[in-house]
Amino acid sequence: MFTGIIKATGRVERIAPHGGGIRLTLATSRPLARLALGESIAVDGACLTVTGRRGRRFTVDISPETMRRTTARSLVPGTRVNLERSLRLSDRIGGHIVQGHVDGVGHLEAIIPDGEWVLYRFRAPRALARYLVEKGSIAVDGISLTIFRCRGATFTVALIPHTLAHTTLGKRVPGDRVNLEADILLKQIAAMLRERQRR
Question: How buried is residue 93: exposed, middle or buried, by Cβ count under 10 Å (0-12/13-18/19+)?
């Protein structure tokens, strides 16, 4: 479990084929001395397992299934990614509950300056449209964001300078693909309603 509050960004240093998927070597400017082998870490919102660590570098393996469902196949050496360690029971939840299970890949449609804020409009896959709710939560590349406008499969979020400076969103341009994870509460409610309709 994660909160969608990004603590650090990292850089892809190496990509190697591994078991039908890939093995990533990532570097971060933040010390990772406490990062343990086998620990879960969210990389651009996808929950992965730490398979190796040395200094400020660590490795994760990405399965073929994760490759199909996320933006992982577009990673290249030098790509910057958002990083979040898994939630501890004693941690504050500053964002919302994020599982690290990417629901689909969307893309950034437009960037609109709005005073000190910047509006980002995204388009989600049609299957995720039912989970887009104004004032609801969504994780974009692992970042917990609040939807303030939605129409069909598009949604808009307002970003403050801190988010732009401390995540990879500040480097995004229209057309870029992003990992999306809908709010788990909305997904659970939708599943319950579908089950009720079957009865």
Answer: middle
Q: Are 83 and 28 in contact (CB under 8 A)?
A: yes
Query: How many helices, marked H, and strands, marked E, lie in the chain?
Result: 3, 12
Q: Which of 102, 184, 188 is nearest to 140 (CA)?
A: 102
Residue 90 scores a pLDDT above 70? no
- pTM for this prediction: 0.91
Q: How far does Cα 142 stand from its chain's mean position?
A: 2
For the chain, domains (ranges, CATH) are 8-85 (2.40.30.20), 104-198 (2.40.30.20)
Q: How many angstroms separate the Cα of 6 from the Cα of each of 42, 114, 154, 196?
A: 9, 23, 23, 37
Q: What is the mean pLDDT of residues 150-170?
A: 94
Pair of tokens at residue 198: 């079957």
Only one residue has tokens 């801190």, namely 162
CA 182 remoteness from chain centre:
10
The per-residue pLDDT for range 47-75, each reduced to its tens digit, is 999 999 988 899 999 999 999 999 999 99
**How far is residue 26's CA from residue 12's CA, in Å, rounded to a whole number?**
5
Query: Contact at 8 Å (CB) between 109 and 25?
Result: no
* Residue pointed to by tokens 């969103």: 169
- Bridge partners of residue 36, in order along the sequence: none
Amino acid (1-letter code) at residue 198: R
CB 104, CB 132: distance < 8 Å: no
